[in-house]
Amino acid sequence: MRNRLRTEICRFNQQQIAQLNHAIAQLDSADAESSHAIAQLDRGISDLDHGISQLDAEFLILITEFLNLIQQMQN
Prior knowledge:
This protein is an all-alpha fold. It is 97% helix and 0% strand.
């Protein structure tokens, strides 16, 4: 009777360990996926920042050209 009980407890513990290991593997996978997603977002933000900087520069050029045209028209 005791041996049977020990066997059942051991089997139950092994099942619990297997479930915990599976849960840990899922968490590791989710962590890797979220890290990858964060890296992609960081790259996207960097690209957007670069694009905004380019637009700012182009806008300043256009404003300068516009002001030069106004000045030429006044002369």
